[in-house]
Write a structure and sequence with these properties.
Layout: E1 7-8, H1 18-26, H2 46-63, E2 69-74, H3 77-89, E3 95-100, H4 103-112, E4 117-123, E5 147-150, E6 152-153, E7 158-159, E8 171-174, E9 189-195, E10 206-211, H5 212-215, H6 228-233, H7 243-259, H8 261-282, E11 287-288, E12 300-305, H9 309-317, E13 323-324, E14 335-338, H10 345-362
Parallel strand pairs: 1-13, 3-4, 3-5, 5-8, 8-9
Antiparallel strand pairs: 2-10, 6-7, 9-10, 11-12, 12-14
Helix pairs in contact: 1-7, 2-7, 3-4, 7-8, 8-10
The protein binds 4'-deoxy-4'-aminopyridoxal-5'-phosphate.
The site of 4'-deoxy-4'-aminopyridoxal-5'-phosphate has 11 residues, from helix 3.
């Protein structure tokens, strides 16, 4: 493969588009005749300002966001958003609904409980997190401050494609592992957050998309850096933002737009998922898919071998065959292929060939 690379199926940090790496490489020593790398620029410079605002504009364009949405670049990962969301939006006497569909939702719930009343509208523990709830299973609170969900469960391998109807109550979503991988309407969302290290670029920046009317319901007396208002008022430049990560994200978003935006991404991701899940479905005697069909993630494909003793062997054989990151998360075991936007269909064809060979040898 070009540059002697391997197929990277890590769940995050994850593969970035090769075209973006090449472009950043070309700009490495002298970005746009500035005479320096972006990481060497002042965050108050005109040059960086352009990069910063272009990244915001590309986010708006991809999601067709109106001016009633704020686009922020924060630090502390998605995990800090688990805290900031309830700290800002869960007021005294209010209830927030949380849909628990896995490890990350569970962590978000734990944080929310520090600030107010939490109603678990669906407890995925009861189905071992192997499927997502249907609308009529949700026990929603009338007049809740918001309804929180994790759109894609990186560890368990489940993904929402249709979001719950919560009426006038704003949805808040952790989209860390599937943002920009398919089309959706941002309208019902009061807030969307995503750590960058899966579909957006390097770790270190967290994208936050905040609807203005929801933002206006936030509490005010909060620690400065954990108050959304600080970052809204200063266009994420209250302090030094993660400049290089923002620039890199901007390049990824440019690549996304050049590819045809979310529609094109959705088609590609559907095709990859169809191919890989199709292969596993065809070889049910050897492989097992724990996630219920309608909840299957297009981003993180979790699978098991009926003979679980063979799993370690398959994982051990994968790096030599040119693949990285196929081991399932330590909390669930098994195997996982993470295939975000940057993973081309060729990688999936190659891994299927590898899995077929393994099956022939051991089946
Ligand atoms: N949410 C989801 C869905 C994740 O997959 C992860 C893990 N990368 C996190 C939150 C935590 O993100 P971070 O490490 O950026 O805090």
């Amino acid at each position: 493969m070009k540059y002697d690379r391997i197929w990277n199926f890590n769940a995050g940090p994850a593969a970035v588009p090769i075209k973006v790496l090449e472009r950043v490489h070309r700009q490495w020593f002298n970005y746009n005749r500035a005479g320096m790398n972006v990481m060497e620029m002042s965050h108050r410079s005109k040059e960086f300002d352009k990069i910063h605002n272009a990244t915001i504009e590309r986010t708006r364009e991809l999601l067709k966001l109106g001016q009633d949405y704020h686009v922020l670049f924060l630090q502390g990962g998605a995990s800090t958003q688990f805290t900031m969301v309830p700290m800002n939006f869960l007021g005294k006497g209010q209830t927030a609904d949380y849909i628990n569909t896995g490890t990350w939702s569970t962590k978000a719930i734990k944080e929310a409980k520090l600030f107010g009343k939490v109603n678990v509208a669906f407890d995925g523990n009861e189905v071992d997190f192997m499927r997502l709830p249907k609308q009529d299973e949700l026990k929603l609170t009338r007049g809740a401050a918001y309804v929180h969900l994790t759109s894609n469960n990186t560890i368990k391998g489940t993904e929402f494609f249709k979001f719950p109807n919560t009426g006038a109550v704003p949805l808040v979503s952790d989209m860390s592992s599937d943002i920009f991988s398919h089309r959706f309407s941002a309208k019902p969302f009061g807030l969307i957050y995503a750590g960058a290290q899966k579909n957006l670029g390097p770790s270190g920046v967290t994208l936050v998309i905040l609807r203005d009317d929801f933002f206006r319901t936030a509490k005010s007396k909060l620690p400065t850096m954990l108050n959304y208002a600080t970052h809204v008022e200063k266009n994420s430049l209250f302090n030094t933002p993660p400049t290089f990560a923002i620039y890199f994200m901007g390049e990824v978003l440019k690549w996304l737009l050049d590819q045809g935006g979310l529609k094109a991404m959705e088609e590609k991701n559907k095709e990859k998922a169809k191919l890989l899940y199709g292969f596993f479905d065809e070889h049910k005697d050897f492989f097992r898919l724990p996630v219920k069909r309608r909840s299957r993630s297009r981003m993180n494909v979790c699978f098991r071998l009926h003979d679980e003793k063979l799993e370690a062997k398959l994982i051990a054989a994968s790096p030599k065959a040119g693949f990285s990151g196929m081991k399932g998360h330590r909390s669930v075991g098994g195997l996982r292929i993470s295939m975000y936007n940057a993973t081309p269909i060729g990688a999936i064809r190659d891994v299927i060939r590898f899995l077929k060979d393994f099956m022939k040898k051991h089946g």
